[in-house]
Amino acid sequence: MDLRFALAVTASLGVSWLLWSAPAMSQAAEGWFEKQELTLQERRARRQQFSDAFTAKLGPDYQTNIPFVSQQAIDGLGQAIARYRNIAASGGWRPFSGNNTIQLNDHGRHVEELRRHLVLTGDVRARARRPRSFGAALQEGVARYQLRHGLGVTGFVDSRTRRALNVPAAERLRQLETNLLRLQDLMKINKAARYVLVNVPAYTLQAVAGGTLALQSKVIVGKPDRQTPPLSARIIELNFFPYWRVPDSIASKDLIPQIRKDPDYFFKENFSVLPAWGAKPIAPDKIDWMSPDIFNRKFRQDPGVNNALGVVRINMPNKHTVYLHDTPLKQLFHRNARPFSSGCVRVQRVLDLAGWLLEDKKGWTQMRVNVTVALAQSKTVKLNKPVPVHFVYVTAWATNNDIVHFRPDIYDQDATSLQVAAAGQEPVPGAGAISP
């Protein structure tokens, strides 16, 4: 099959054809791409195509469809612990040495070991006519494993997948046991009629009503050196098109050095400098950027689509001065690992969350939320009743279809020596932007 023809057919027939033909396309691509000199962008597009196909096919079964903190989640973890105790007691799995990619059409003992590993974890069926050959079934098994571990879905064993595979079964068992204790301790929060929960290492927000999952969203959390803290607070209001009052720590570490390097940044991003909060801004021509006094000033960014808070801030007073908010850097939500903020939590479905929070506010519907944003109206809306919000740290859980999920211990809070599968990833454009 000519790959150019396959791509053309895919474009005309849509993703359903691609799902059916992914193994065939993989084999067709094998020879065709060897003859082509692909740019980095083209290679990434090719990987993204396969990732989208596998995720569309397998993703619905691997979504977390229950609250992270629930009796269902505890029961699921208990069953997972029993399974992994048996795996660990039987010797677990062997680590993979070397750095070579393991992929479609490979042959050998390393493929057989990969198959054995994925049979143990339930990602591949036990029977195989040619156990040492990497075929379409094993490719799908690798994709399943990657979905369960929050990895990029490639269908082959890359460096990050290898690091996850090389975590011993005994350590996976300890990870499950550690998180069972966490969930049992957190069960008290599930008694609230409505609450918001952010699972930091899962990069996921859940809105829960009556013990049922009402809304789920990807989030961006703090970098390892600027961690999103564990906390419990109450959401009291929404700020549409807010000012961003830059924390002193971000101003000194990020903003001032950036402006000294590029003075136009101050004007392009609509910042103001104030002698103190509540005072009038200082005229730009009166500011001495090289003076040490600049570190005693206050910085504020005007509302707008380029504001670091985006179009809405969800106010939840707490001693850490962190909150939930929108972001102009929407492209970062496409990353699997998302530790890019300075501690606050950026929410992909922030407008849906705003609508959910205002459900009991007379006159405030989802449509009104959307219209307020479309009209760029600066407005503060107080909730009739504060909604509890919790930032928690859960790195392993199980869904009600018995699928076990693991995530890297991004802040090194698990009591194990688990590998951080996201380590060593490429720099992400926009991830270093000055933002909360």
How do the strands and helices of this protein lay out in sequence?
Elements (H helix, E strand, L loop, with lengths): L2 H11 L1 H20 L5 H23 L8 H19 L19 H12 L15 H13 L10 H7 L3 H18 L7 E6 L4 E6 L2 E11 L8 E10 L3 E3 L1 H14 L2 H5 L2 E4 L23 E4 L10 E4 L8 E2 L13 E3 L3 E3 L2 H8 L8 H9 L4 E14 L3 E3 L5 E3 L30
Parallel strand pairs: 1-12, 3-10, 9-11
Antiparallel strand pairs: 1-2, 2-3, 3-11, 4-8, 4-12, 5-7, 6-7, 8-9, 13-14
Helix pairs in contact: 1-2, 2-3, 3-6, 4-8, 11-12
CATH fold call of the largest domain: L,D-transpeptidase catalytic domain-like
Largest sheet: 8 strands, mixed, barrel
Q: What percentage of residues falls in helices of 4 or more residues? A: 25-40%
Q: What's the number of structural domains?
A: 3
Query: Average pLDDT across residues?
Result: 89
Main β-sheet, spatial strand arrangement = 1-2-3-11-9-8-4-12
Order of helices and strands: HHHHHHHHEEEEEHHEEEEEEHHEEE
**Shape, principal axes of CA atoms:** globular
What is the strand content? 15-25%
Write down how many β-strands occur, each being a DSSP E stretch of 2 or more residues.
14
Backbone structural class: alpha+beta
* Low-confidence parts: 1-25, 27-35, 416-424
Name of the CATH architecture of the largest domain: Beta Barrel
Rg over CA atoms, rounded to whole Å, is: 24 Å
Number of helices: 12
- CATH class term of the largest domain: Mainly Beta
N→C terminal distance = 50 Å
The CATH superfamily of the largest domain turns out to be L,D-transpeptidase catalytic domain-like
